[in-house]
Amino acid sequence: MDRLLQIGFRDIGRWTLAGDGLQLQLDTLPTHRRALYAFATESTLLYVGKTVGTLPGRLQAYVSPHQSQRTNVRNRAALLDLLRAETKVRILGWIDPGLHRVGPFDLNMAAGLEDSIIALLAPPWNGARMLETRRAASPIQPQVLIEVPSENLSISSASDGGAQLLAAATAKKLAVPLTSIPNTTQSSAHGSVTGSTFTVRLGKTYYERGFFNVPVAFSELFGSHGATVDLYCGTERALVRAILDRKANQQSGTPRIYGKIELGYWFQRRFKLDDVLKVTVLSPTAAVLM
């Protein structure tokens, strides 16, 4: 269960009995389409599913399923068995932030993530037959990465104290159309995050070396030490894979996010020394940089 929480799943409700049937109890959810949901006991993952509609609409289909909806009928019966045995059943949710694109093409991260979770965690209600099918068919999702010049690239301090990027080659611009960033609600192990934003001044060390520290007030919005953080950079939303370090700042214990040369290159291409970077937290493992 911890692995789902670390990638942004959060508790969104629970199943209870209503006479001989099911009752759905949900927290307030954003009406965002394309999402994953999971059923679990206190410590055991039971089932993972996806929806192209809203989570409330999809989950309501388990309450009174049509007989032709075999998955709904089967899972409803299993839920009733657990609840009648006085086993609590949690509902968790994950919303696709809709930021992954290749050129003009939108990637359905919910679908790809569902396949990977089923293959890795093998939830029993997803079934062994489905598991083997998806292991064989699951594609590796492509990613859009910042292209850093491989030749004639150096980062150094100039005489005026500002960091300069010295590159004879120019990185190719990414042809990724801008779309709006949804107002997502995700969670860390410590609490809920709703579109939280902070700013960081790009001093010389940050600017040259491609990292930044997270302010103390925002520390608990991020995940555990060593986690990968997807940074979506600029209006082009170029992806930099960074590492979360909770041991670098021993006194404060606040996270440091290392994007290294790719992030340093993006800083220097877009900003001047001492400019202000805006960071919007999407989940414990994702943020947008502007």
Descriptive report:
The structure is a single chain. The chain has 290 residues and is an alpha+beta fold. The protein is 23% helix and 33% strand. Strand 17 (276-283) and strand 18 (286-289) form a beta hairpin. Helix 4 crosses helix 5. The radius of gyration is 22 Å and the shape is elongated. The model is unreliable at 128-195 (pLDDT under 50).
Defining traits:
5-stranded antiparallel beta sheet, 7-stranded mixed beta sheet
Brief synopsis:
The chain is an alpha+beta fold and 290 residues long.
Which SSEs are present, and which pair or pack?
Blueprint: H1 2-6, E1 10-18, E2 21-26, E3 35-40, E4 45-51, H2 55-60, H3 70-84, E5 89-95, E6 101-102, E7 105-106, H4 109-121, H5 128-137, E8 153-157, E9 163-167, E10 185-188, E11 191-194, E12 196-201, H6 204-209, E13 211-213, E14 228-233, E15 238-245, E16 256-258, H7 260-270, E17 276-283, E18 286-289
Parallel strand pairs: 14-18
Antiparallel strand pairs: 1-2, 1-5, 3-4, 3-5, 6-7, 8-9, 10-11, 12-17, 13-16, 14-15, 15-16, 17-18
Helix pairs in contact: 4-5
Mean pLDDT: 76
Major beta sheet, specifics? 7 strands, mixed
CA radius of gyration is 22 Å
Order of helices and strands: HEEEEHHEEEHHEEEEEHEEEEHEE
**Count of DSSP H/I helices:** 7
Which blocks of ≥5 consecutive residues have pLDDT under 50? 128-195
Question: DSSP strand (E) fraction?
Answer: 25-35%
Strand order of the largest sheet: 12-17-18-14-15-16-13
Determine the structural class based on helices, strands and strand pairing: alpha+beta
Q: What characteristic shape results from the CA principal axes?
A: elongated
Q: Give the number of DSSP strands.
A: 18
Span between N and C termini? Answer: 32 Å
Helix content bin = 10-25%
